[in-house]
Hints:
- The chain is mainly α.
- The protein has one domain.
- The protein contains 6 helices and no strands.
- The chain is globular.
Amino acid sequence: MTTDSTISRIAAPLGRVLLSLIFIISGFQKITGYAGTQGYMDAMGVPGALLPLVILVELGGGIALLLGWQARLAAFLLAGFSILSGLIFHLIPGMGMEGMEAQMQTISFMKNVSIAGGMLMVVALGAGPVSLGASRKAALA
């Protein structure tokens, strides 16, 4: 029979990997499609000049979360980023969307809300026992 500590040793790093992947992949895609992303941001009323900051948050936060380094801070920032980007890019009232397009935007918004929820769990519970944060605490003890 497994114990809670065994489950934590597996679930915490796996959860961090799964949560971090969307940000790491998205950050790299923004680098490789820089001009297109910048144009999309401008079209949505967000200054394209903010793109380097967006890439830094996604890649830096995603990698920190993946490694479990400053995981609570990274998760807090990524939770805020998820809600903010969901509100700006997916919750678009009055844009004349109907049917499937409106449904897809609602699903995308709810995805961002769900990611923020997962991030807030990391904020509350920490990175778990298998992380750079845990390794550092063990070394200091």
